[in-house]
Amino acid sequence: MANPEPENIAVRSLRPGSVNLGVLALVAAAAGLASGLFLAFHFAPTLDEARTSVAFLESRVLFGSFLRGLHHWAGHFAVALAALHGLHAFWRGRHHVAGSLGSTADAVEALRAHRRRWVLGCLLLLVIVGFAYTGYLLPADARARTGLDVMQGVARSTPVAGEASAAVAAGGPEVSSATLVRLYAVHSLVLPVALFLVLFAFVGGWPRLAELLTRTNALGGIAVLGCLALLAWLSPAPLGPEFDPEIGAEGQPEWFFLWVNELLHRFGSQTFLVGAVLPGALVLLGIVLPWLPRSARARRVELACAVVLLATLGWLTAAALSHDKAHDDEATSAPDTRDGPDAPGGTDETGRQRTDGDISGKVAAVFKRFRCGECHMIDDDEDGGDSGPALYRQGTDKLPPFRELYTRPYFRLKVGDPAGLWPDGGMTYRKRAGLPTKQQLDLLEHWFFDAK
Amino acid sequence: MERRDFTQRILGGAFAALLGVPGVATVLDPARRTAGSRWTDAGAAADVTAEGVKTFSYEVEAGWETRKETGYLVRDGEAIIALSAKCTHLGCKVRFKDDKFVCPCHGGMFSRTGAPEKEPVIEPLVRFVVEIKDGKVRVQT
Ligand code: FES
Hints:
heterodimer, A: mainly alpha, Cytochrome Bc1 Complex, Chain C, Cytochrome Bc1 Complex, Chain D, domain 2, 3 domains, B: Rieske Iron-sulfur Protein, 2 domains, 6-stranded antiparallel beta sheet, 4-stranded antiparallel beta sheet, 10 strands, 19% helix, 40% strand, binds FE2/S2 (inorganic) cluster
C-alpha cells in the first residue's frame, strides 16, 4: 500500500454501533448491479424495441417484473442513501480535517488524503446519479422519449458547439436507436467500471469492504434488501405508454431531476445556464468544499448556504410536482380534440343521439372511439355487445363481475395496455383503434371508479 | 467477531437468494416457452409443380418478436410436401440447388423430398402438416 491513509479514514469514520448510510447505499448499489446483470439478458436498446422488450419481460417472463422492480428500487435507494450520506458528512464537517493543521509532512499528507477522499465521495454520488439518469431513459416509453429530447435539447443549447454536442449526445442529428445504444453503453459498461474504480479508491481496497460490514451495517443491509424485495413485489417499476407523436411530450423525469426540469421550465431562454452550467457549478461547489476557508464563521456561512440551497431545491421540486399535477388535471378536463368534431356530443354508431345522459359526453366519446360497445354492455345500454363483461359506473348498485379484482393500476394496464398483460390481454379494441391516450385512460378510470 | 461474521453471512445469503433466484429464473425462462403451432396460407396448389420448389414464409413467435421464417413446398405426385429449411445437422438454412437441398455449413445434402443423402446429415428435413382446400395450400407450422 503506497498510501495507507484513505482506508484508515474509511474505517475510522465508522462509528461502532451506529449504522453507516454509505454502506447501506453500497448494498443498494450492489443489488442494482446484480439485478442489472440479469436484466441485460432481456433488453433490446433500440428505439423501436426497448419498450417492447421491457414489456415482454414484465408480462411474460417469470420473475421478470420482480427483477425489474428490484433494479428500479435499488437505484432509488442508492441515490437517496448516497445523497443522505453525503449530507450527513457535510453536516458533521467531514470535508474539513479535524484538529489544527500543522505544517509537518504528516499533517500535509493527512490533509491531502482527506481532500482526496471527499472528492472521491462526490464522484461516487455522481456515478450513482448517472446510473439513475441513464436508467430512466432506457425503456424509451413516452416519459423517457420526452427525457431523451430534453437531453438533446440541453446539449444543443451549448454555446458555440451546440449542434456538435447534441449530435454527440444523441449519436446523430436526431434522437434515435443510436442514442439508446449510447446510453446503454454508459449505463451498463462505463458506469459500472467507474463505480468499481472510484469505490475501490474511496474505501481503500476490497478487504476494507468486509471491515465496513460491521454487525450493525450488515443488519442495516439486510433491512435494505428486505425493503427492496417488498417494494419490488408491491410496487413494480413503472413502464409508461408508448410514445405517441400525436400527444407529444409526456411525463416528468425522476424525482431528483425535477428541480432541473422546473428551472428549464421557468427560464425557457436560459437552457444552457440552468440545464448545464448550474448543475455543473453545484457539483463543482460540492467537490471544492474542502478547499474553502475553515473558521467558525466560515462554517456558519457554509451551513446557512447549504440550508438555503436545499430549501430552494425542495421548493423547485415541489413546484415541479404540483405543476405536473395541474397539467394532468388540465389535460383531463380539456376537451379531447383527437376525437373529431362530433366527440363531445356522444352520438353512437348510427348517428342517433345517445339516450343515456348518465355517461358524460367525453367518456361517451372515448367509448365510441374505441367501440367498446361492440363487446361490452355499458351502463345497461341494450345495444351493447356481450362478448365482454357488462360495465357499470362505480355509482350504480350493479357491479360488473370480478369488480373487486380491478385495482386502479390493474385497470389501467388491462384497459390502457392490455398487451402488456398477455398477448391481446383479452381486449380486441386496439386492433381497431390503437391504444388510448393517458387523458382518455384517466377519463375511463374516473368513470369506472369514481363516477356516481 | 464471530457474530459479525454471522450477520455478514446472512446478508450474503439474503443477497444471493434475492437477486440470484429471480435473476437466474428470468434467464432460464425461455425454456418454458414452446413455439405454438399455427396455420399459414402458402399460396395456390397449382403453383407447386413437379419441377423445382416453391418457398413460403411463416411466422414464429420468438421472445418479444414475431419472426418470419422460410419453408419449402415441393410436389410429390398428387401430394404437396412442406419442408422446414432448417438443416437437421446443426440448423443452418438449406438451399435448393440442382434438384437437391444443400446445406452450406458442413456439406450435408437432402433429396427434393427432404430425405438425407449425404453426411453429416442423417435425419430428414422436418415436414409440416399440409392441407389443400379449393386449390389453396395451408401449412401448419
Ligand atoms: S448444419 Fe447442415 S450440414 Fe451441418
